[in-house]
């Protein structure tokens, strides 16, 4: 069984036992987390598509860790003007292991 969930303005295709990195959510490590915005549920040939969400469907998971991604270098410059700016960004994320899909 698989599902398409919405988290942090993005959509993720998940199945049971899978680890997924989503935008940071306020949850403690080791605690349960429930996604109630399920866009699609599929099992074999049968597929339920929500309008926009599947009613009564939920995806449960366990928070594994809260961390930050690798640094992304941002480099801006103006040609012929000797103007350069170098910066970096590390996006925070939450890693969740999907434990149960119900609907």
UniProtKB/TrEMBL annotation:
Keywords: Ribonucleoprotein, Ribosomal protein, RNA-binding, rRNA-binding. One of its GO terms (molecular function) is rRNA binding. One of its GO terms (cellular component) is ribonucleoprotein complex. PROSITE patterns: RIBOSOMAL_L21. The keyword Magnesium does not apply. Transmembrane segments: none annotated. GO terms for biological process: translation. InterPro entries: bL21-like, bL21-like_sf, Ribosomal_bL21, Ribosomal_bL21_CS. The keyword RNA-binding applies. It holds the Pfam family Ribosomal_L21p. This protein binds to 23S rRNA in the presence of protein L20. Belongs to the bacterial ribosomal protein bL21 family. HAMAP family: Ribosomal_bL21. Part of the 50S ribosomal subunit. Contacts protein L20. This is Large ribosomal subunit protein bL21. The gene is rplU.
């Amino acid at each position: 069984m698989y599902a398409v969930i919405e988290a942090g303005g993005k959509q993720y295709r998940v199945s049971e036992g899978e680890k997924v990195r989503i935008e940071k959510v306020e949850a403690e490590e080791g605690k349960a987390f429930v996604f109630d915005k399920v866009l699609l549920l599929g099992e074999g040939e049968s597929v339920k598509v929500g309008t926009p969400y599947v009613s009564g469907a939920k995806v449960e998971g366990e928070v594994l860790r809260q961390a930050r991604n690798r640094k992304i270098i941002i480099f801006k410059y103006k040609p012929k003007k000797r103007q350069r700016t170098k910066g970096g960004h590390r996006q925070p994320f939450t890693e969740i292991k999907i434990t149960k899909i119900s609907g």
